[in-house]
Design a protein that fits this description.
This protein has 279 residues and is of the alpha/beta class. Helices cover 39% and strands 12% of the residues. The protein has 10 helices and 7 strands. Strand 4 and strand 5 form a beta hairpin. It is globular. Bound molecules: thiamine diphosphate.
Length: 279
């Protein structure tokens, strides 16, 4: 458990890490990574019952997390490194040949259990892991993150139907509800319609919050945990801003998957305090 100020400091450093990693590799996805820094920090430093010391691939007797929108790997790698899963210096190897930190997650990196990046698969994996926990009488929880554009994948809705029908109530799915995707706004590409109503109609508990507000994240997860074990899967729809923290990356899909140049990197880092020390 960390207090809100500590979590904000970690998230600020995570944002610097994201920019520095993607600048160094000259490829990657800054927009969604920056938008999810507050969520990912809160999840690892406040919410989950998990630690690098006890991490196992099968996740028995620990909470498990699956990143379904694998393209935002930089934010996950930074949070894992800052939480002690591996040396922060490794962050400088993002997307390099033979690095454990590939452009999309693989289980070469400690803390990662499945490869992801092909959108739409993570909720199905999470359902399987959640059922395994029930069969093992393991009281721990499964967490996932999905992009809102990712929800256009049909497999998500098969898994959503399955989770409710099978009463998978040890699953807390989250959505990076930033309204943007690779080619433009989600509404323009393929609108999700009334997303809270859709999840509710599929039999899920729905929580909505501001995913860039750590206080709201802490409260929302505490509510989600209190709903676990009551017969329904839980989804948290987190309103976020793509590119949060860097003014010229916000309010547009243009930084979904583009690396900043040297001048843009300088401008971005000037807006992000170095709170824990750069790697
Ligand atoms: C199955 C599949 N189809 C297409 C892609 C290419 N792709 C990568 S990210 C992306 C957009 C996803 O949008 P969203 O989930 O909202 O992520 P955000 O832009 O907010 O980071 C697409 C279409 C993919 N990775 N997998």
């Amino acid at each position: 458990m960390n207090d809100v100020k500590q979590l904000q400091d970690i998230a600020a450093q995570v944002r610097r890490d994201i920019i520095r990693m993607i600048f160094a590799s000259q490829s990657g996805h800054p927009g969604g990574s920056l938008g999810c820094a507050d969520f990912m920090t809160t999840l690892y430093f406040n919410v989950m019952d998990a630690s690098p010391q006890t991490f196992t691939a099968d996740g028995k007797n620990q909470d498990m997390f699956f990143l379904s929108n694998g393209h935002i790997a930089p934010v996950w790698y930074s949070v894992l490194a800052r939480a002690g899963y591996f040396d922060v210096k490794e962050l400088g190897t993002l997307r390099k040949l033979h690095s454990k930190l590939q452009g999309h997650p693989t289980n070469y990196a400690k803390g990662v259990r499945i490869a992801s990046g092909s959108l739409g698969q993570g909720l199905s994996v999470a359902c399987g892991a959640a059922i395994a926990k029930k069969m093992n009488n393991d009281p721990n929880l499964i967490f996932t993150l999905h992009g809102d554009g990712e929800l256009q994948e049909g497999q998500i809705w098969e898994a959503a139907m399955f989770a409710a029908a099978k009463k998978i109530d040890n699953l807390i799915a989250t959505v990076d509800y930033n309204g943007q995707q690779i080619d433009g706004s989600v509404d323009n590409v393929l609108s999700l319609g009334d997303l809270p109503a859709k999840f509710a109609a599929f039999g899920w508990e729905v929580i909505q919050l501001n995913g860039n507000d750590i206080n709201e994240l802490i409260d929302g997860f505490s509510k989600a945990k209190s709903l676990a074990g009551k017969g329904k899967p839980i989804v948290i729809l987190m309103k976020t801003e793509m590119g949060q923290g860097v003014d010229f990356m916000m309010g547009t899909h243009k930084w979904h998957g583009k690396a900043p140049n040297e001048e843009q990197t300088r401008q971005a880092l000037a807006q992000l305090p170095e709170t824990l020390g750069d790697y």
